């Protein structure tokens, strides 16, 4: 068996758990090749491994890059050559958060692949806004690649499978659980150098994604809200994040040049 097949086998055997795969690959334990071959033969999905050319270099630089990524759709959407921006925020989004997410994502999706976690709230709004405006989007799951979670986002899941991209480090059948979603956030941050937060609380999964983006010196863009609120955006702006009021602010912060101005007279 080659190294690529061994990684796939360990990923399937240990349900995508990074620590278990790492320990198995480092322990030099005797590999049951017959069991491994049978396991691999039963799997007929799409995947790339850490060893493949398609695997993004940007993701390799993150802490614990996934050994295997399972996917449906267009894997080229996570290519390092594309402009990509992660859009994340509150699951219990306000009307204000909904409006600014829809507006900003719709205006930048022509030039950026929109990456998010297909969760309730900002994530789902970001995916739908990209799809509805004719852009491209990537949904990063915190469960098995064959599971749509939450079920209310089935429209996003099915559309991404056909015309965009769904990825997960978890093979089919791995059920969603709270501990897997924060772990998933390192993939969202690792796939791009730009992050847009439209709304969120300080103690949240959004904070984890922001920390991961800051650790790689990525561009963190935040939409401000009212003073006195529990706002990760206001907090990060105070720490030096880019203050975002218009789509042009995002282009300026990320140094991506738009061929046509955002606002035309």
Structure notes:
This protein is an alpha/beta fold and 265 residues long. The protein folds into 2 domains: 1-44, no CATH class; 76-254, Rossmann fold, CATH 3.40.50. Helices cover 40% and strands 14% of the residues. The chain has 11 helices and 9 strands. The protein has helices spanning 3-13, 18-27, 33-42, 57-60, 95-108, 122-132, 154-163, 180-190, 205-215, 232-238, 247-254; strands at 46-49, 68-73, 84-88, 113-116, 137-140, 165-168, 194-197, 219-222, 242-243. Strands 1-2-6-5-4-3-7-8-9 form a 9-stranded mixed sheet, with helices on both faces. Helix 1 crosses helix 3 (33-42). It is elongated, with a radius of gyration of 19 Å.
List the helices and strands and how they pair.
Blueprint lengths: L2 H11 L4 H10 L5 H10 L3 E4 L7 H4 L7 E6 L10 E5 L6 H14 L4 E4 L5 H11 L4 E4 L13 H10 L1 E4 L11 H11 L3 E4 L7 H11 L3 E4 L9 H7 L3 E2 L3 H8 L11
Parallel strand pairs: 3-4, 3-7, 4-5, 5-6, 7-8, 8-9
Antiparallel strand pairs: 1-2, 2-6
Helix pairs in contact: 1-2, 1-3, 5-6, 8-9
């Amino acid at each position: 068996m080659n190294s690529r097949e061994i990684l796939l086998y360990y990923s399937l055997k240990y349900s995508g758990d990074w620590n278990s795969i790492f320990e198995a690959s480092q322990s030099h334990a005797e590999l049951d090749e017959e069991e491994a071959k049978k396991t691999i033969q039963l799997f007929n999905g799409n995947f790339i491994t850490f060893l493949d050319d398609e695997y993004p270099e940007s993701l390799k630089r993150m802490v614990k890059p996934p050994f295997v990524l399972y996917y449906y759709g267009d894997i080229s959407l996570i290519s390092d050559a594309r402009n990509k921006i992660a859009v994340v925020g509150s699951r219990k989004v306000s009307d204000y958060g909904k409006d600014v997410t829809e507006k900003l994502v719709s205006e930048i999706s022509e030039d950026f692949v929109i990456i998010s976690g297909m969760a309730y709230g900002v994530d789902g709004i970001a995916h739908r806004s990209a799809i509805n405006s004719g852009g491209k989007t990537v949904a990063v799951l915190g469960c098995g690649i064959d599971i749509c979670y939450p079920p209310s986002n089935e429209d996003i899941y099915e559309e991404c499978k056909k015309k965009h991209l769904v990825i997960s480090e978890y093979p089919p059948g791995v059920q969603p659980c709270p501990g897997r979603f924060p772990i998933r956030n390192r993939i969202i941050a690792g796939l791009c150098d730009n992050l847009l937060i439209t709304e969120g609380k300080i103690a949240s999964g959004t904070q984890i994604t922001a920390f991961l983006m800051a650790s790689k010196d990525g561009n963190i863009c935040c939409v401000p809200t009212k003073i006195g609120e529990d706002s990760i955006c206001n907090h990060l702006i105070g720490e030096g994040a880019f203050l975002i009021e218009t789509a042009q602010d995002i282009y300026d912060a990320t140094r991506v040049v738009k061929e046509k101005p955002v606002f035309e007279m």
